[in-house]
Amino acid sequence: MTNYGDERDSPAVSSAAAAASSSSTPKRFWTPGRFVAILCIVNLINYVDRGVIASNGVNGSARTCDAKGLCSAGTGIQGEFSLSNFQDGLLSSAFMVGLLVASPIFAALSKRFTPFKLIGVGLTVWTLAAVGCGFSYNFWMIAVFRMFVGVGEASFISLAAPYIDDSAPAARKNLWLGLFYMCIPAGVALGYVFGGYVGNHLGWRWAFYIEAIAMAFFVVLSFCIKPPQLKGFAAKESKQPSTSIETVALTHAEASQIKTITPKPKTQNLVVVFGKDMKALFSEKVFIVNVLGYITYNFVIGAYSYWGPKAGFGIYQMKNADMIFGGLTIICGIIGTLGGSYVLDRINATLPNTFKLLAASTLFGAAFCFAAFCMKNMYAFIGLFAVGEILIFAPQAPVNFVCLHCVRPNLRPLSMASSTVLIHILGDVPSSPLYGKMQDRLKNWRTSTLIITSILFLAAIIWGIGIFMNSVDRSNEVEEEEKLETKADNNSVPV
Question: Cβ contacts of residue 416 below 8 Å, gap of 6+?
């Protein structure tokens, strides 16, 4: 008789089995690190577009006339289409309209369709709309295309962060999120520089054409990559029937009884599911406090990102405002975003600790930025504003960490989408035109900027409230439920 136990334990057999296993499972090219790198590059291009539309080279300046009636031609979009500062601010808000409408739609569709394919669809819309911006010949045409750029970005903003949260190692989860959100300040800053250079040398339209060409490669890639399975979402291609003993071993009478009953479909109406998910999401008090602070914070960041180069030129007569603000934002954004992520990983990433970091960094950042805009000397301004920007960018990853971990895993896309909608519709959507309206009335860049900066103190107070809340990390709740279900199935007695 053959001794199967000895054969199984034989070193030769073990090595042969290991070799066979190794050859049968080839190493995946798209490792988690490479997959997240792709998401980061796409995020970078998204925010380059935000910087491009705000740069002096693309956005330009309005037509001006002196006391003698001598007028100088405007430049860029504002000059070519003869836009007031208020209309110019509306271009930023037009982008948000598409983002706000499409974000919850993509989040809801992620329960029916493969989330990464939805990202591909969105990036396709983004690319075509960017080309349309370059072909625009009046204000309303470019405003409509800016809306569709927002629609395209909505798919990515809602669904990318949960993929990173699942792909990152537990000890470096915030660092990976930090790398992703570092692309926000870096992208906006690169957009300032890129838009300024291309606008001055090739014309503002070419800035949109070039960014569309850059995104086209990732559109193709998004339909070719097989992404990791999102936690809390069933694989769309695996619809296997139940194989439990209780289902299979039915008597003829039981089977005939089942045939006469119309079972309730597992796939509920999308609107009903969306309504239930929204109710569950907004019952989370931690989510509400976090987003209220984020709205206030983003109100200021939106005004800074859109009007920063023009304010710098207006207050300090900076000759290269795009380059200076772009360089400051790249360096400070990278240091601040990665620094905030690193600190959160080091201090134990609980939700109360995250709120402590959010409140402290925003409070001190607001103080430094306020002091910077009080300075008459440009170099004193740059030094203080650099420190303020580092502190202000520190919340980028932590605030989204709260959005991802204060809800169940299957609510993460909706949490990110709802957060995106609220911080824009109540934050940077109104802040850009309101800042423009305030500047039209005050005609003083320093006063306007000090008023907008003071709102950061309110954001710090709101996030400070979160420190004292009874907050629970719910990121593993589905896994716990599945373990209980598996245990129940194992303890059940076969019929």
Answer: 107, 157, 158, 159, 161, 162, 400, 403, 404
| Residue 241 CA neighbour count, 13 Å, CB half | 5
Nearest 10 degrees: Cα torsion 309, 310, 311, 317: 90
More confident residue, 305 or 351: 351
Q: Can you list the positions of beta strands (E) in 7-134?
A: 64-65, 71-72
Where would I find the H helices in 139-284? 139-167, 173-201, 204-222, 245-248, 252-260, 270-281
Closest alpha carbon to 343 in 327, 330, 329, 360? 360
How many other CB atoms are there within 10 angstroms of residue 171's CB atom? 9
Confidence grade of residue 160 (pLDDT, cut at 50, 70, 90): confident
Q: What share of the chain is helix, strand, coil (3-state, %, to 5)?
A: 75, 0, 20
CA dist., res. 242 & res. 135, Å (int):
54
pLDDT tens digits along 208-262: 999 999 999 999 888 887 777 666 565 555 444 433 333 334 444 444 444 444 4
245 vs 474: CA distance, rounded Å: 33
CA distance 394 to 157: 19
Closest CA to 185 of 394, 431, 482, 437: 394
Q: Specify whether the CB–CB gap between 208 and 133 falls below 8 A.
A: yes
Q: Is residue 350 classed as helix, strand or coil in its secondary structure?
A: coil
Distance CA 42, CA 378 (A): 35
pTM of the model: 0.71
SS3 65: strand
Please say if the pLDDT value at position 204 is more than 90: no
- For all residues of the chain together, what is the average pLDDT? 79
* C-beta of residue 23 within 8 angstroms of C-beta of residue 159: no
Q: Quick one: tokens of 479?
A: 């896994």
Residue with tokens 């019952």: 283
Angle at 84 between CA 82 and CA 87, to 5 degrees: 100
Q: How confident is the model at residue 482 (pLDDT cuts 50, 70, 90)?
A: very low
Buried b (16+ CB within 10 A) or exposed e, 77-86: bbbbbebebe
Q: CB under 8 Å to 326, separation ≥6 — which residues?
A: 51, 55, 189, 190, 191, 192, 193, 196
Q: In angstroms, rounded to a whole number, what is the distance separating the alpha carbons of residues 83 and 486?
A: 63
